[in-house]
Design brief:
It is a single chain. With about 375 residues, the chain is α+β, with helices and mostly antiparallel strands. The chain is built from ten helices and 17 strands. The chain has helices at about 25-30, 35-40, 50-65, 115-130, 145-150, 210-220, 220-225, 235-250, 300-310, 335-340, and strands at about 10, 15-20, 70-75, 85-95, 100-105, 135-140, 155-165, 170-180, 195-200, 200-205, 255-265, 270-275, 280-285, 285-290, 325-330, 345-355, 360-370. Strands 1-2-3-4-5-6-8-7 form an eight-stranded mixed beta sheet, with helices on both faces. The longest helix is centred in the first third of the chain and has 18 residues, at about 50-65. The termini are far apart.
Length: about 375
């Protein structure tokens, strides 16, 4: 193909895909020096105007002419009212009617639906005009923005490829998803945004990188290891990081929600609370405490916040659940107190079902609370 003459123009409302132009250079630099772009892509450090010109005049045209990569400029209206370069999206040839999709947005248009529209346009082009059958998406684990676009456009997620993506001298874990031409172009599952929930003294929020040292301390604590013997022992930073990543992916796959319990004033990590499993209307709740936060009724208060979120109707920002339940080992009076103080009822036991850290096998006590019983 000849660049730019053979590059089609594709449009959907305000979003247009077109051939890159030399006058895109300044906006390319703005995108490539943005911290989010630097964090998640392999743009060179110190990206400047000369690098942008070389990419626009050499790299992009050669991709079209060889067929190795068909890259479009995205154009849309920016928040300042100007219509200009808004990022790039491309299909990289993977042979046998397959391609890899890649995209990056100018920081001014992120979160405005521009990239979702652009990805749908290039997928239509790939399936209808190039005869593609399957498109693959890869991203560094943790790049939630990219994954959200893939989710919105119907990609089916396949898990994690360990140490697969080359990124600034390292091979990092990669999320992977594919889309076949016959797949529905709509999300295959729910996506839970992790809301921030606050009381006068607590903040429930997503688990953050800064929480990892105290998460390790909480999970390594003797009492935690005794009552939750299924946790890794010894518990290290990699275990904490894995829990943080699983918390993110569980929310993105619509199967679980986990929060850090933090002090509202200082944001210091105090523990975790989550909804690890659900049957949509019935949710299990689990929680752990940092040892220096015990005895202050913190988890009792945190559980009340989660229950409220669980039972509130979806139109009010809640989950619209009908039942909450939790399990506590026979003998774990602190955990049982947290449940009963929030109105949970003991309804049964699983006999000899839990192995404790000292090798003893004990009953698990079962507690639940129905929305109809919740005082609100």
């Amino acid at each position: 193909m000849t660049f730019p003459d053979d590059v089609p123009t594709l449009a959907d409302g305000d979003v247009t895909l077109r051939a890159h132009r030399l006058d895109d250079a300044d906006a390319c630099v703005e995108q490539c020096v943005d911290p989010v772009s630097v964090r998640w892509t392999t743009v060179p450090y110190g990206y400047d105007h000369a690098m942008a010109v070389d990419w626009l005049t050499n790299v992009v045209p050669s991709g079209w002419e060889s067929g190795a990569e068909r890259s479009f400029a995205i154009e849309s209206t920016h928040p300042d009212g100007r219509r200009r370069f808004s990022g790039s999206v491309s299909l990289r040839d993977a042979q046998d009617r397959r391609a890899e999709i890649a995209f990056g947005a100018h920081p001014a248009v992120r979160g405005r639906g521009v990239m979702t529209a652009a990805v749908n346009l290039i997928l239509d082009y790939g399936f209808d005009q190039l005869g593609l059958e399957t498109v693959i998406w890869l991203s560094n684990v943790g790049n939630v923005g990219s994954r959200r676009v893939a989710w919105k456009t119907g990609f089916r997620f396949g898990g994690v490829l360990p140490r697969w993506l080359s990124h600034r001298g390292e091979n990092l874990d990669a999320w992977v998803a594919t889309l076949h031409k016959s797949d529905k172009r709509e999300p295959a599952s729910e996506w839970f945004d992790i809301p921030v929930i606050e009381s006068n003294r607590l903040r429930l929020r997503p688990i953050a990188e800064a929480d990892l040292p105290r998460l390790v301390e909480a999970s390594s604590d003797e009492r935690t290891q005794h009552w939750l013997a299924f946790m890794p022992s010894p518990y290290g930073e990699n275990d904490a990081r894995g829990f943080m990543v699983r918390s993110v992916t569980g929310a993105m796959e619509g199967v679980s929600l986990n929060w850090a319990v933090a002090d509202r004033d200082t944001d210091v990590f105090l523990g975790t609370i989550g909804l690890p499993r659900s049957a949509r209307s019935s949710w299990e709740i689990g929680y752990t405490m940092h040892p220096d936060s015990r005895g202050k009724h913190i988890m009792r208060e945190a559980l009340g916040l989660v229950v409220r979120h669980l039972f509130l109707p979806e139109v009010d920002g809640g989950l619209g659940g009908c039942r909450a339940f939790l399990k506590a080992a026979d003998g774990n009076t602190a955990s049982q107190y947290v449940a009963t103080a929030n109105g949970f009822t003991l309804y049964g036991r699983e006999r000899q079902s839990e192995l404790l850290g000292d090798g003893q096998r004990v009953d698990m006590l079962l507690f639940d609370l129905l929305r109809a019983e919740w005082p609100g």
